[in-house]
């Protein structure tokens, strides 16, 4: 599929709903699945291969596999899956995907216990300041999963074995081993939930996808000091485009202004006034 036809098939990033596919750049594609995004990194029609970042909601494996076929063709599995972290909405289809593709899964060493069945995440905080999604969060699963032989620890030097030109950055706060991905050549950022571009606690804003830069989802963020430092670290990189775990991709001046403001005013914009992880 050539670039012209590819960008005709994948809709622009200004209007999107769950199941729509977004061409963020010539080799970055974003698939929203209900409340969360997964990313495909790799140029179609080349022999360089591709990588999946995060694994969406439960029961979304067929949608992810189908989208991969649309982008890269039949029988072209990824070289690997990279996890920004292991919360349920980022690993929902991971077991089915590794069974289908038989590929390694990479994550930060501090995230490994949650991906090998050794630890569970803290229970979500349904009392935190926010909206209806925050109140509903008590129903969200917090158990770890066991990926067994498929899981790999990312190299300590920040490199990503299967993704040339990219580096991983430790951005804890939302989870202990949360990472973001950054490419120096075009300053592309895959932020995971280090920050997001929708007010994830508000059901109305999640449904309407009103673009609004925000900190990590409040109901599942136990360390707000680390979360603030992570946002400051990402702002210092000066990304030109960003795909976040929730919300619409953001780029250019809109991203620069909003991310700098989030870093400078994190305690006002992102940190909740009350909640068990704040108190």
TrEMBL record:
Matching Gene3D superfamilies: Ribonuclease Z/Hydroxyacylglutathione hydrolase-like
Highest taxon listed in the record's lineage: Bacteria
Keyword tags: Hydrolase
Name recorded for this polypeptide: MBL fold metallo-hydrolase
PANTHER family referenced in this protein's UniProt entry, alphabetically: METALLO-BETA-LACTAMASE DOMAIN-CONTAINING, METALLO-BETA-LACTAMASE DOMAIN-CONTAINING PROTEIN
Record-annotated Metallo-beta-lactamase domain positions: 35-246
SUPFAM superfamilies: Metallo-hydrolase/oxidoreductase
GO molecular function: hydrolase activity
